[in-house]
């Protein structure tokens, strides 16, 4: 399907269209994030009575689809290209748009302008720089700019179409899904996809997101239109989900990423999973060799505790376990408790390495359990003790919801 132009002009409201590209085939994003359902690069055309604006563009390799969609709508003139975010999957085709529509100006904030001058080599005179809350008239339609920094870069902003009550949020509220449906129709699936996207990309920024949610809620919004995924014609669906995800609340749940080489660590994990289940704790183990790292991240959005399990390899963590820990440390889940369980043969520094690799986690660390060889009766007693400690910790934490 590479190189095939898939035209997909879709109308949101009168003179407001989605003209971007659906990427049915992409399986990996940023060379790290699996895409089980593809993705989309949403670009929005707004035809005012006097001016025409394009909000965000598409991944450069999908530029032909954007231009075919503009051709289908017979767009002869674009006055403004509004850039909500400088990352290239949204800004990368701006230079080609400026080539095709030489009178167009890039409308964005000062930080985004500087990024795009560096990343895209756009000349300074092609920009119109706006401030937070400033408006831009298209005639019978008005754009208002809402700065929403750190979702997920420092320059990110949203654009509000006043008369049609549409908030264009770029990566904010996005999800990686390729769908022929413009609007959300399967709400459960939409929230699952959005939760995955939040976990992989937005979770480290949950504190700035809290402030940005308050800014968005000041506006009368009928539609939330992100630049990945579907348009929300029931905005409260995604707004309420985000409020829950960025809160301090967690569930009575333990996530266990693990790897086992010769069966010892797997036996430890299997026993420990049963011990937690018998005590009424929801638990989800993930074999990191075969698991989708996005699913691990999504499971951590509302988990109270993370327990990492690994054998010892050359006195340290198994390399795959170390990689997963580094990823978890980067996405900074709001877990309240953490610990390490594992096995070793003659010596090991796995626990110290695990602590170093999770320095960003603001969690209380429970006593680890490192077992020599295959687990024995006394080791199972230690695992039961740890399971009891987790139960007590959950019960005493005001943020854990049962």
Which spans of ≥5 residues are poorly predicted at pLDDT below 50?
none
Q: Report mean pLDDT, rounded to a whole number.
A: 95
Helix content: 25-40%
Topology, number of strands: 24
- What structural category characterises the helix and strand content? alpha/beta
Assign the CATH architecture of the largest domain. Answer: 4-Layer Sandwich
Rg for CA atoms: 24 Å
What number of domains?
A: 2
Gross morphology: elongated
Output the CATH class name of the largest domain. Alpha Beta
Separate helix tally: 12
Main beta sheet, described? Answer: 8 strands, mixed
Quote the beta fraction: 25-35%
CATH superfamily of the largest domain: Ribonuclease Z/Hydroxyacylglutathione hydrolase-like
Structural summary, described in words:
- The chain has 402 residues and is an alpha/beta fold.
- It folds into two domains: 10-246, Metallo-beta-lactamase, Chain A (4-Layer Sandwich); 254-394, 3-Layer(aba) Sandwich (Rossmann fold).
- The chain is 34% helix and 25% strand.
- The protein has helices spanning 63-72, 88-91, 94-100, 110-120, 187-202, 206-217, 235-246, 264-278, 293-300, 319-331, 350-357, 377-396, and strands spanning 10-13, 16-18, 21-23, 28-29, 33-34, 39-41, 44-47, 52-55, 80-82, 105-108, 127-129, 135-137, 142-147, 157-161, 166-170, 223-226, 250-258, 282-287, 303-313, 316-317, 337-344, 364-365, 369-372, 400-401.
- The strands form five sheets. Strands 17, 18, 19, 20, 21, 22, 23 and 24 form an eight-stranded mixed sheet that branches. The chain has a seven-stranded mixed sheet with strand order 1-2-7-8-9-10-11. A five-stranded mixed sheet has the order 12-13-14-15-16.
- α11 (350-357) links the parallel β21 and β22.
- α6 runs antiparallel to α7 (235-246).
- The radius of gyration is 24 Å and the shape is elongated.
């Amino acid at each position: 399907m590479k190189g095939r132009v898939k035209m997909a002009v879709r109308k949101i409201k009168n003179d407001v269209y989605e003209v971007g590209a659906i990427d049915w085939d992409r399986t990996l994003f940023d060379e790290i994030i699996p895409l089980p359902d593809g993705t989309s690069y949403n670009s929005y055309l707004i035809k005012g009575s006097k001016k025409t604006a394009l909000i965000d563009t598409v991944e450069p390799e999908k530029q032909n689809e954007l231009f075919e969609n503009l051709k289908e709508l017979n767009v002869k003139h674009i006055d403004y290209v509004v850039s909500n975010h400088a990352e290239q999957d949204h800004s990368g085709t701006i230079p080609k748009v400026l080539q095709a529509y030489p009178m167009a100006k890039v409308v964005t904030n000062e930080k985004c302008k500087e990024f795009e001058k560096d990343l895209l080599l756009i000349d300074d005179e092609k920009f119109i720089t706006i401030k937070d809350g400033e408006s831009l008239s298209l005639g019978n339609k008005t754009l208002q700019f809402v700065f929403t920094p750190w979702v997920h870069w420092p320059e990110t902003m949203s654009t509000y179409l006043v008369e049609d009550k549409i908030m264009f949020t770029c990566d904010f509220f996005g999800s990686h899904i390729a769908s022929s449906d413009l609007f959300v129709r399967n709400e459960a699936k939409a929230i699952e996809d959005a939760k995955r996207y939040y976990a992989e990309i937005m979770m480290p920024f949950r504190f700035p997101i809290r402030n940005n949610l308050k800014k968005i809620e000041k506006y009368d919004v009928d539609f939330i239109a992100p630049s990945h995924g579907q348009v929300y014609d029931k905005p409260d669906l995604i707004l309420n989900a985000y409020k829950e995800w960025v809160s301090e609340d967690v569930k009575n749940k333990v996530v266990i990423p693990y790897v086992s080489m010769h069966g010892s660590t797997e036996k430890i994990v299997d026993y420990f999973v049963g011990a937690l289940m018998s005590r009424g704790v929801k638990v989800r183990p993930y074999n990191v060799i075969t698991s989708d790292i996005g699913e691990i991240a999504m499971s951590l959005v509302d988990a109270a505790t993370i327990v990492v399990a690994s054998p010892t390899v050359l006195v340290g963590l198994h390399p795959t376990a170390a990689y997963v820990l580094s990823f978890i440390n980067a996405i900074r889940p709001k877990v309240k408790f953490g610990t390490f369980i594992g096995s070793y043969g003659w010596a090991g520094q796995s626990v110290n390495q695990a602590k170093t690799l999770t320095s960003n986690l603001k969690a209380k660390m429970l006593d680890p359990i490192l077992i020599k060889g295959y687990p024995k009766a006394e080791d199972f007693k230690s695992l039961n003790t740890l399971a009891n400690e987790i139960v007590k910790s959950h019960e005493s934490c005001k943020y854990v919801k049962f």
